[in-house]
Amino acid sequence: MMTDHTKAALENGMAMEAKKHGMRQAQDGHWTVTFTVHPEDLPADLMIAGMGTRYALTLFEVLDNEELKGCPEEAADDEAEDDDTAPPEKRKWDDLRPSQQAGIICNEPAFAAYAAEKWPAHWADANADTARFVRDLCCVSSRSELDASDYMQNEWEKLEKQYRAWQDAPKHGAG
């Protein structure tokens, strides 16, 4: 069940990916937890907020497949509807930010095959690293930049549509 705080955070909050860096307890019993955030992922509103600004946090562990562990939007009955050919989706694809879509697609083995087949020079330049391939092809230094502007979102959408067309081609007798 999603709490009001969690719902508000998911709908209106500042989103960023961070790694737990440290944790310590002060003499008064309060805990200090520190996180490391890539400069491209740090929201400007957070950077300019004054020291002492209070925040309500909702944290989800990011799994290796870029899905969020324990995300409250996961419905129990979705598992029964899933088939073995597609990974389970917690949210609709179009509701995901471009950076999230890119993170998921970069973990698909078929995307590596697509990159190597359709973009061999870029694939070689990226040293067979799908994340680097996306960053290089979309001219960004971090996949989070794909969320930054309409232009960047369009660049990602073009690449994603080309990849999906390539995936669908064998199903329509072209492969």
Share of helix among residues? 25-40%
Mean pLDDT over the full residue set: 77
Strand order of the largest sheet: 1-2
Query: Tally the helices: what do you get?
Result: 8
Query: How many DSSP-defined strands?
Result: 4
- Tell me, briefly, the overall form: elongated
Head-to-tail CA distance between termini: 45 Å
Description:
Strand 3 (61-62) and strand 4 form a beta hairpin. Residues 74-82 have low confidence and may be disordered. The strands form 2 sheets. The protein has a two-stranded antiparallel sheet. Strands 3-4 form a two-stranded antiparallel ribbon. It has helices at residues 4-12, 44-48, 78-81, 98-105, 109-118, 120-125, 130-137, 150-168; strands at 18-25, 31-37, 61-62, 68-69. It has 8 helices and 4 strands. It has 2 domains: 4-59, no CATH class; 92-172, no CATH class. 39% of the residues lie in helices and 11% in strands. By secondary structure, it is an alpha+beta fold.
Helices and strands, with pairings:
Blueprint lengths: L3 H9 L5 E8 L5 E7 L6 H5 L12 E2 L5 E2 L8 H4 L16 H8 L3 H10 L1 H6 L4 H8 L12 H19 L7
Which features does this protein show?
175 residues, 2 domains, two-stranded antiparallel sheet, 39% helix, elongated
The gist of it:
This protein is an alpha+beta fold. Helix content is 39%, strand content 11%.
